[in-house]
Design goal:
Number of helices: 12
Number of domains: 2
Strand content: under 5%
Structural class: mainly alpha
Strand order of the largest sheet: 1-2
Number of strands: 2
Oligomer: single chain
Shape: elongated
Largest sheet: 2 strands, antiparallel
Distance between the termini: 45 Å
């Protein structure tokens, strides 16, 4: 059971954990079948921040030990925790793992984590993707097992901070040259939209001359 996995991984007595959840039902904890959620989200973020502060980078290894889909759920909540004082350190620890640096083992799960981590560590994620792309030729970028959707969504996020804009737009160009999708938000679509006059968000100057851009 997931409850057992969480209790074992974080060194919490299962009975105490279960009792705490039961006591909080109707206040901050709600039930949906076998699942429990903490609401409002502000309370959930506050509690998660406390755990991060107490456990520090130790939590990175702990989360990776949890059975699926628990690590994926942690990943999905990262965006809400980006202001937590220790979250950048924890994300940095996780991003040191080989699956984020070796093209041969870079998969959907790793790409999904990068997308979530981009909210907390945009510059680090941009650097990782830039290095990964250097090890991938056009054939590899167009392959079925390349996690194109997740990478495109990550690069779309990285268009907004000024410091990561140029990396993001160059990598989107490389993806668009090996386009395999017909979605409006494909790499080609995201790249095209980023140059629209009415795009109201990126801090990068829209007047910058693009003539000198080259492939990464």
């Amino acid at each position: 059971m997931e409850l057992d996995a969480i209790a074992d991984t974080f060194g919490i007595d299962r009975a105490v954990l279960l009792q705490t959840l039961s006591e909080e039902e109707g206040r901050f904890v709600s039930r949906a079948g076998a699942l429990r959620s903490v609401t409002p989200r502000l309370i959930a973020i506050w509690l998660a921040s406390k755990v991060l502060k107490i456990r520090g980078t130790e939590i990175a290894a702990a989360v990776q030990q949890l059975p699926e889909p628990l690590p994926a759920r942690f990943r999905d909540q990262l965006v809400y925790l980006r202001e937590a004082p220790t979250i950048r350190v924890v994300v940095d620890e996780i991003l040191k793992k080989p699956e984020f640096h070796e093209p041969a083992v870079f998969d959907e799960a790793a790409a999904g984590f990068l997308r979530a981590a981009a909210a907390a560590n945009p510059e680090q994620v941009a650097g990782i993707l830039c290095d990964l792309f250097k090890g991938l030729d056009n054939e590899a970028l167009g392959a079925d097992d390349f996690p194109r959707r997740e990478v495109t969504w990550t690069l779309e996020q990285l268009l907004w901070p000024e410091l990561t804009y140029e990396t993001a737009v160059n990598l989107l160009l490389r993806l668009s040259e090996t386009e395999t999708e017909a979605f409006a938000n494909s790499a080609t679509g995201v790249l095209t939209d980023s140059f629209q006059v009415h795009l109201g968000g990126p801090r990068h100057p829209t007047s910058r001359d693009c003539a000198g851009w080259t492939q990464s």
